[in-house]
Write a structure and sequence with these properties.
Number of strands: 2
Distance between the termini: 35 Å
Helix content: 55-70%
Shape: elongated
Number of helices: 7
Strand order of the largest sheet: 1-2
Structural class: mainly alpha
Length: 141
């Protein structure tokens, strides 16, 4: 059972991709979508959410695209997931039995807190270093 919705993993991958490929100029959404084998319309809402939350900066126009809005080390996986809205997708107070509300949900809440704390320790800089090393070992330059 995956702990993250696909949308969350995609948001993290998009930010890492931008960190790797921006090189002083915005990365086009079409290029991102091509590398991740997605239709651009599928990726665009995620990118816009990341812009609204200050993770990415968007530039319009023919040479536009996306770049990081702040330093890589200051962006965590938790920041990205919250900005992409996936934290809210998993959140909610279910109506139900006393067992569900008084036993199950508090226990799961503790696990979610620990998971969020672990995600907050993962930053874009670390993930970008891992991706760059993988790229070098694969001979992609």
């Amino acid at each position: 059972m995956p702990l993250l919705p696909r949308k969350g993993a995609l948001a993290i991958a998009a930010v890492i991709d931008i960190a790797l490929n921006a090189r002083g100029r915005p990365v086009a959404a079409k290029s991102l979508a091509t590398r991740h084998r997605l239709p651009p319309r599928h990726l665009e809402p995620v990118l816009q959410a990341l812009v609204r939350h200050g993770i990415l900066r968007g530039t319009r126009g023919p040479r536009g695209g996306y770049e990081l809005a702040r330093e890589q080390r200051r962006i965590t996986a938790d920041d990205i997931l919250r900005a992409a809205g996936t934290a809210e997708d998993m959140d909610g107070t279910p109506a139900g039995s006393t067992l569900l509300n008084k036993v199950v949900m508090p226990a799961l809440g503790e696990a979610e807190h620990a998971f969020a704390a672990a995600l907050a320790r993962i930053n874009v800089e670390d993930l970008t270093h891992c991706a760059a090393a993988l790229r070098r070992s694969a001979g992609e330059g």
